[in-house]
Amino acid sequence: MAGTAVATTKPVNPVVALIEKRKSDIAALLPMAVPSERFIKTFKATIQRQPELLDCDPQSVLDSVTKAAQDGLIIDGREAAIVKFNSTKKVRNEHGQYVDKIVKTAQYIPMRNGLIKRIRNTGEVSTLDQTIVYQQELDEGRFEWQAGDDGFIRHNPIYDRDPGKPVLVYSIARLRDGSISRCVMRKDQVLKIKARSRSSNSGPWVTDEEEMWKKTCLRRHSKDLPMDADLRRIFDSEDYDPPATIDAKAEPVEETKTEPAKPARKKAGAAAAALNNEPPHDPKTGEILDADFSEPAAEEGSQEDQTTDPDEGNSPDDDVI
Known about the structure:
Blueprint: H1 14-21, H2 23-29, H3 36-49, H4 58-71, E1 80-92, E2 98-110, H5 112-121, E3 125-134, H6 135-139, E4 143-146, E5 152-155, E6 166-175, E7 180-186, H7 187-195, H8 204-207, H9 209-221, H10 229-236, H11 270-275, E8 306-308
Parallel strand pairs: 7-8
Antiparallel strand pairs: 1-2, 3-6, 4-5, 6-7
Helix pairs in contact: 1-4, 2-3
């Protein structure tokens, strides 16, 4: 008697299952300019390129995808990226003792091209670019920078030979009114910011460090650029968030699921509520609210010609990415 073949179904990864389940909610958070099919398709391609994300806490991946959707950035490594890092959590073992357990967590990172896209979409900035200055260029007098009322930057890059290691990075923006804004950062300033980032030893800081130099300068420069409240929120709530620790005296926990992060944009609509597993409500009074997808009011920015001094008006934690 011939044997009968038994069909087997490969189990669906929890990360893939959760994203698929929440796909319509994620799509509802996207701006109209970003097609939902393209957003989801690009994320799935990212999962194929970075299979290590499948080992991350599913909720942390959902939180990362949600933030990218709210920011209107495609997760393609150019506009936005998701990286894996290990965090430590206190859990109680079978003997009732607290022990450290490593939890693989996903982290959303807005990338420079995505931030520039959002800035240009405001219509207030005509051109915006960041450039690195290398040691040989500095030694040969190929870079000049003067701050003040008559400030300028002159840079003659080396293209035909090794220019050496990066020593400076600068950003230049031409505003809609024709004025020019500049920002210059030294190597030590960039490395201090890198050291405070929890993704300093993984992701773009390792694979694309020079790109992260440029992004670091862009973020500091953004303080002097005109942008609306929603774009300012993206810069202010960037991808640095010190790993959470749980005091050993805290209540025992039996599992390692991370708490879902609150969406960065305050949306009280059905999509945001579904992602947080709760109805839209007033955070102070607890009153249930009607759906509201209104955008935050825009803020006016300065459009004066200006050059940002590397050490002026920046607290140590301002620019951490």
